[in-house]
Amino acid sequence: MRIITYFTKPFSVSPLAFKRCLDHISWLFSQESYTSQLCHLDFILSLSFFYHLSVSNSNITSMAEALLSVVLEQLVSLTRKQIEEEVRLVVNVDREVENLIFHFNAIQAVLQDAEERQVKEANVRNWLRNLEDVSYDINDVLDEWNTELLKHQIEKEEEKEGKNVALTKRKVCFFIPSPSVCFGSIGKVIMRRDIAVRIKEINEKLSEIAILRKNYNFLENTIRATEKLERVETSSFVQVSSIIGREEEKNRLMSMLLSESSQQGKSPFVIPIVGMGGLGKTAFAQLVYNDENIKTHFKPRIWVCVSDPFEEIKIARAIAEALNKDDNRINSTSLQPLLECINEYISGKKFLIFLDDVWTPTISNWEPLMEALQNSAIGSRILVTTRKETVATVMGAPADHVIHLTILSDQDCLQLFNKIAFFNRERDDQLEDIGRKIVKKCNGLPLAAKTLASLMRYKKTRKEWVDVLDNKIWDYKKNDLIEYWMSQEYLSMKGDSEKEIIIGQQYFDNLVMRSFFQDFGKDRVNDDIIACKMHDILHDFVQFVTKNECFIMEMAESCKEKNMVVDNKVRHLNIMSTYNDSFPVSIYNCKGLRTLVISTSKLPLLPSDSFSKLKSIRTLKLNENSIKEVPESIGGLVHLRYLDLSQNKELKELPDSVGNLFNLETLRLIDCFKLRELPVSLRKLVNLKHLYIEGCYTLKVPKEIGRLRNLQILDWLCLQDGGDDDEGIFKLGDLGNLEQLQGSLCIRNLNLAKDGSEAKNAELVNKKNLLHLTLHFLYGISEPNLKHEEILNGFQVHTNLESLTIWGNHTTTLCPSWMMSCHNLRRLEFSYVPFCGVLAPPVP
Questions:
Q1: What share of the chain is helix, strand, coil (3-state, %, to 5)?
Q2: Where is each NB-ARC domain found (predicted)?
Q3: Under 8 Å CB-to-CB from 77, ≥6 apart: which residues?
Q4: Is 589 left (phi over 0), alpha (psi -120 to 50) or beta?
């Protein structure tokens, strides 16, 4: 067994967290299983690499503090909901709820001190872990309470539609964490009693924790200070011989710097150097800054390390001090005296100012500084290094003045690697060959090449080099990551799913910008990143940071699963292999498990009670296995937000109890080729946002799916002939009810649509966020088909559509009038259109 994280909350490493990692290194390297994978120097380098790329200006937020914030929000929200619903599903807990809020607020006030002290004090560390456990427990109970309120709402809607009698006759059971009961007053009473008792028990534990805090004499701090990451400050000095490549970029930049022209008649003008972390922007700027021609041409030259945040007073003081360090105004804490000082000493001079590592300027804090520099001589320049394209825009730099730094060539990257890896040692043909393969994994990033080369410098044997070469590359898809984060409530915005997605994209973009990922896969239409990889060195570090909660289980053939013990504190578990390809019952010990991934590719059977003991799960991935049947007990996972059963090619049906997963947001059934139909009970999944059914060619989708008004992603709709039950089948026109659809949609078997009116009723014209559309008709028809033309002309799409693909359409004219309104269309594809002779809209 070894440690791993698959679904880690997006985080930034503060100096305190980084220090904590270093303090735990001695423990880490005492573990034989880990040292066999990563030597002491390797780990130090991986930490340094991560630290260099980590987020600056971050709040130190412990898991305990994050959980407390979520729980307090839940308590307030649930109290409000009970009032709004005019129903008391949980009684006699008002005082308990008040006590919970009181204790949580009291504990929250000392968390900063506890977080700092737990690095060295084991008893404080244990106190925090106990607090986390209680916070997880109350989070689960409150989520169940909220789910019961949601169930109550659904019951009322069912009653309004006259369906409550039918449901009672069928005895549809709701698998709630208390004993499974059917709809009815008895079930409600049991649930109320269960939640009330558990809240009282948890409150007693929390009360003990709150009392114990007094034993540690924590310092209270009701207002959390923001701790800024102490990034290494750069300077203008560099060993020129250590910089390899960049000749073309240097020649272009030198030409722009030494030219006497000015930007739009202004002086100075800004030249941004833009590129992702690790590309060597600072080293490139240092190379140019120290060029003899630059030294002669500009007087003065000023280097300022800006970093994050963009503090105009700090920057102005650095410039003023470089101009005249004896001027008393440089000690001012106000901006105006500093700008006056700069304006006075810069007058008539041709200067060069380097602003290194710029992150977050705004127009309001950049313009005053720029105005103070306006009376300089023609030809003055401001050179800026940044990872963010928006910085160039804020600073007013035209597109043709931006230097986009790209990756090094393979040859330059190899030269840089060899220069460091073989420093003060003889070359070895075998090691050089392995090194060449290692360099390919760097993808042209100078920082990655230097980091790995520094690591290899101290490795002497071929085996050590091969071990590094064989490090894994971890694949991720952007949307998958965002949906994982949503399922764990890391992006919680009080039910505003659109904001959650935006925040998730911002998290992902930040991780990309800070070089967490590499080797990007991009969308062929708009060049957006849709997939990426993470190098094993960085992955190992993330594993270490989350070692207490995240594990991976890999079973050797000689190791029987029954002897494997998983810590009951584990929250996220990935099972890569199991004994005898059977369900690992040892995980039942993990009562608080929130993520379960089983990726053995061979798991054939799920026991009937497989989920009855794992009721806290939020994320469940069982894709790419051999599952034929999903047990009814899955309906008991009331916290479940994410369920992936994709590529279980023998799976034929889902149990009705799936409809009891009221909190489910994402359901993935991609390439379940034998899946025949979705249960009608899915109509109750009012929180479902993402339904993926691509590759389910024979799947009958029930008409009730049209009731899921929050559904945002429906990637695939393969129209079916309903036969005797045709009225119960989801038809093309039913898409009109799904107003929130966005992203991509493929509609297949369009030949089964009744006529053009069905296409019109789909109301695609109202789906402004639906950007990619595929219309798939039928193969193998030997003559033109007028019905195809009628259906195609019946569609109306929103002008935001970016890509359109039409397959198997058997008409002679393949350009309906509505296509001319697609002003944002970037990609248009026609496939298998054997009778098309005209690609133009009809003339009115």
A1: 45, 15, 40
A2: 247-424
A3: 146, 494
A4: alpha
CA 653 to chain centre: 31
- How far from chain centre, in Å, is Cα 788? 41
Residue 15: is the preceding peptide bond cis (ω within 30°)?
no
Axis-axis angle for helices 122-160, 185-212 (nearest 10): 160
Supply the Cα-derived Rg of the chain in whole angstroms: 31
Residue 567 has what pLDDT? 73
**Would you tell me how many other CB atoms lie within 10 Å of the CB of residue 152?**
14
Best CA proximity match to 840, nearest among 810, 818, 816, 808: 816
Count of CA atoms in the C-beta half-sphere (13 A) of 270: 25
Burial code (b: 16+ CB inside 10 Å, e: under 16) for 175-197 equals bbbbebbebeeebbeebbebbbe
Whole-angstrom distance, CA of residue 442 vs CA of residue 413: 8
3-state secondary structure 649-661: CCCCECCHHHHHC
- CA 513, chain centre distance (Å): 13
- Orientation of helix 410-421 relative to helix 446-456, angle to 10°: 30
Burial class (CB in 10 A: 0-12, 13-18, 19+), 709: exposed
Residue carrying structure tokens 């410039």: 319
Q: Under DSSP, is residue 42 helix (H, G, I), strand (E, B) or coil?
A: helix
Give the Cα separation of 564 and 573 in Å (integer): 13
Contact status, residue 742 vs residue 713, Cβ threshold 8 Å: yes
Residue 40 CA to its chain's centroid (Å): 30
Kindly state the percentage of the chain with pLDDT values over 90.
29
Q: How many residues does the chain have?
A: 844
Gap between the Cα atoms of 682 and 754, Å rounded: 26
Please report where in the chains the tokens 């698998």 appear, as a residue. Answer: 175
Angle at 205 between CA 201 and CA 208, to 5 degrees: 140
Asked if residue 139 has pLDDT above 50, the reply is yes
Distance CA 141, CA 146 (A): 9
DSSP secondary-structure letter at 475? Answer: E
Residue 116, amino acid? E
Query: According to CATH, where is 3.40.50.300 located in the chain?
Result: 246-404
C-alpha 666/C-alpha 692 separation (Å) is 8
pLDDT in tens, 104-135: 888 888 888 888 888 788 898 889 888 888 88
**Contact indicator for 326, 345 with CB cutoff of 8 Å:** no
Nearest Cα to Cα of residue 300 among 376, 361, 372: 376
> Structure tokens of 555?
């079973």
Backbone angles phi, psi at 796, to 5 degrees: -135, 130
3-state secondary structure of 38: coil
Q: What angle do CA 505, 709, 80 make, to 5 degrees?
A: 80
Q: SS3 sequence, 102-124?
A: HHHHHHHCCHHHHHHHCCCCHHH
Does domain 246-404 sit in CATH 3.40.1350.10? no
Reported as a single tens digit per residue, the pLDDT across 498-534 is 788 888 888 888 787 776 777 778 877 777 888 887 7
Average pLDDT, the chain: 78
Cis peptide before 300 (omega within 30 of 0): yes
